[in-house]
Amino acid sequence: MPTGPLMIIGGAEDKLHKRSILREFVAASGAADARIAVVPTASSIGAEVSGVYDALFRALGAADVVTVAPDSREEAHDPELVARLDRSTGVFMTGGNQLKLSAIVSGTPVGDAIVAAHERGAVVAGTSAGASIQSSYMVAFGGPGSTPKQRMTQVAAGLGLLDGTVIDQHFDQRNRYGRLLMIVSHSPQLLGLGVDEDTAAVVSDEGGSRVMRVLGKGSVTVLDPARMTTNAYEAKRSSPLLASGVVLHVLPEGSVFDLDARALVPQVSAVDPEDAAELAEAQRDLRRMARDIAASDVSPTTLRRRQARTRRQTTPEPTTDPLDGARQ
Amino acid sequence: MPTGPLMIIGGAEDKLHKRSILREFVAASGAADARIAVVPTASSIGAEVSGVYDALFRALGAADVVTVAPDSREEAHDPELVARLDRSTGVFMTGGNQLKLSAIVSGTPVGDAIVAAHERGAVVAGTSAGASIQSSYMVAFGGPGSTPKQRMTQVAAGLGLLDGTVIDQHFDQRNRYGRLLMIVSHSPQLLGLGVDEDTAAVVSDEGGSRVMRVLGKGSVTVLDPARMTTNAYEAKRSSPLLASGVVLHVLPEGSVFDLDARALVPQVSAVDPEDAAELAEAQRDLRRMARDIAASDVSPTTLRRRQARTRRQTTPEPTTDPLDGARQ
Q: Does ipTM exceed 0.90?
């Protein structure tokens, strides 16, 4: 059985307007059949945060929403909380402090039940702290800045739902290139993922490959350090790090990326219906012009004039010459 | 005759303490023989800015410092200003507004004299606005942010001292990955250079290759878009851009980068003298151990014990076993 989709959300997902990301989460969790477990442990105001997501997921049509809110490792052994996760079709981990989440949940029956939910095919989503904890190596905390510097951030163990990665969030808004570059300079076997606010990386198992699709307003930045050169093993104190040869992918909504091949999956670009009709007409005209030229060997000028006459008779508005391109 | 070195400074270079970058500029301009022309045109408080650099360059030992401060394209035709540039061994363009600098100077006799100074071997340096104008394509202005978005920045023509590039400054401090990525997504034939504050990219012609050395507290970030995939030609309004497969190099002080080969030039890492002595001793010990093993076929344990006895007799302090590594 394939593992369930992961939704890695960069924080501050839209809750009041289109709610695209949260709507997608409910849909993937089964829509009217969705049974959702909210884990607000990262937050220091977990009850209120759960209240918001409970209302949101019900408004978006989920059948049932429960809260799994252990506040200590002791509570994270409660069989009732584990049962709630085991019954869910979707798990949602809120934002807050990812170290609090890992300190309370990782390696407990509740943590194991989240991993098990993913393995049995349920959707596991998380925003901000709830995004970071999904990677195998978790950014614990650290400062902002574009340039990687020694000691600017700390790594702890994540839940490991997305193996071989480190995930950072609020990536654009909090200027986190530097800290993600520092981590991949220390650990070039990892793939670095930086997710912007109101943006989700949706990862699913497609024929044995982990395929990531981007959804939302910002981008997902991928740092592939496989062939990098670094001085991270000898840089002193807080000096800037050498990080040469990192391959960078910045992926907006609609992008599809193979995390195992570490390559963009080419997409046919979306064309709006009006443009599509115009392009199809231009294609027909050009094919006909090519045939006419090949058949009668008349001058292209004569042909263009003849075509213009034909077009004036058949279309109400003149269009631009397709040889000059439909898009200027 | 090779062109002179370019010093591309990311702004806010240290003026009060070690002054490493400005000191290097005076040294490269001829030290006690340096005749420096300061161009403060980018600044709206040019007289005061010139006053500071005049005092600085004299304090650092320059023989002569003059100001070239045209305030209009008309003034930029003044033969006396051109003569000052023609006599200089170093030209320094201050920070401010690079569009003001290009609006007044580019394509005038003063602008041409700056280019000519570079071509006859003088040092041309510039900080902030004075850095940006050195590239062929100049960032005019634009907003901050890590994620590239359509229309987030504007490009104008620079002096073209560093051909085929676009240079951004205050790179770390003002979070400018996004705008530099937007520009290279529009123009993937350019190499993007982002220079941090109090940091200089020093470019010199070495056997026909343009070699860049990094100096200062931050880093120089290089974006090589040669093999990128982008949707920049069809992205609407201010939507985030696809920029996949950009090769990234973050280069701290001491890094050497070949701008034509677009590759790091490997350096022997600097080892401090104390470490060097310890490493040399460890090397001797290991070579001797290898010889002993090969010669007498005794067990390594016996040999290690024997070596430890020898070391205790000859060195006052015990050192770590070199086989475990000198650096933990």
A: no
